[in-house]
Design brief:
Blueprint: H1 2-31, H2 38-43, H3 45-54, H4 56-72, H5 78-127, H6 131-141, H7 143-152, H8 158-167, H9 172-182, H10 184-195, H11 197-203, H12 215-228, H13 230-238
Helix pairs in contact: 1-5, 3-4, 4-5, 5-8, 5-9, 5-10, 7-9, 7-12
Length: 245
């Protein structure tokens, strides 16, 4: 009787958080896309600046909280939020607030995923054999490299980089540290674009969100990606950690 009563609670505790995130993400994608957009930022820029000037500390806290919610629930508008951070606070402070908000939000969705499917998937991968087991072993032996790599590569969606480590049993502290440090380069790029939005608005133009793929920015980031994989490459070359053996 007691076990029967506890089982539903256990299921709710495991799947409730990730189900809530998925539901809010779907609802948000439908209802909030017009509010979390460049047009909304452009139309409300004067009100935002006035509120910031009158309530700077409150604006910082509200901005970080909003960023946390956007990331934690995978809502549309993360790029716009990053631009807004630069527009309101400048490149240095804006990037700092962006990284803090994004990291906290990423940790929340990471925890929700790990509480749900993460533990079960990890146990299955640990018990598996063959190629799956070797891939899992390779990731375990090079966690730092792989965590920084998926954060630095612009082509990896942010929410994907939040979920994969949870499903592979990466420790929370490693995930948090690699997220905080790994998103700094991209955040600085987009925040600097946001810091220049005043001139963009004045010209009636739209910011170039593809700037991160321009050679003078992409090549240094790819260099960081290669650097993050250096330990893996060294192991493969020296043969100390032969995953395919």
């Amino acid at each position: 009787m007691t076990e029967a009563n506890e089982q539903p609670k256990s299921a709710v505790a495991r799947y409730g958080p990730i189900a809530l995130i998925a539901t809010v993400a779907l609802v948000g994608a439908f209802f909030l896309r017009d509010y979390l957009s460049f047009d909304a930022l452009r139309d409300n820029r004067e009100a935002l600046i006035a509120f910031r000037d009158s309530n700077y500390a409150l604006t910082v806290l509200a901005f970080i909280a909003a960023y946390v919610v956007i990331v934690a629930f995978s809502l549309p508008g993360a790029a716009i939020a990053t631009l807004t951070g630069g527009f309101l606070f400048g490149t240095a402070l804006g990037a700092t607030f962006n990284v803090i908000g994004a990291t906290i939000g990423a940790v929340l969705i990471f925890q929700a995923a790990r509480m749900g499917l993460g533990k079960q998937l990890k146990e299955r991968m640990d018990a598996s054999e063959g190629m799956v087991s070797k891939i899992k072993k390779g990731i375990d032996e090079n966690q730092w490299s792989m965590l920084f790599f998926i954060r630095l590569v612009p082509a990896v969606p942010f929410f994907v980089a939040n979920l994969i480590p949870a499903f592979l049993g990466v420790p929370l502290w490693k995930f948090a540290v690699s997220t905080f440090l790994g998103i700094i380069p991209g955040s600085l790029v987009y925040t600097s674009v946001g810091a220049g939005l005043g001139e963009v608005f004045a010209r009636g133009e739209t910011p170039n969100l593809g700037i991160i793929f321009e050679p003078h920015i992409l090549l240094p980031i790819l260099g960081l990606c290669a650097l993050s994989l250096l330990p893996v490459i060294i192991k493969a070359v020296t043969g100390k950690k032969d995953l395919l053996k």
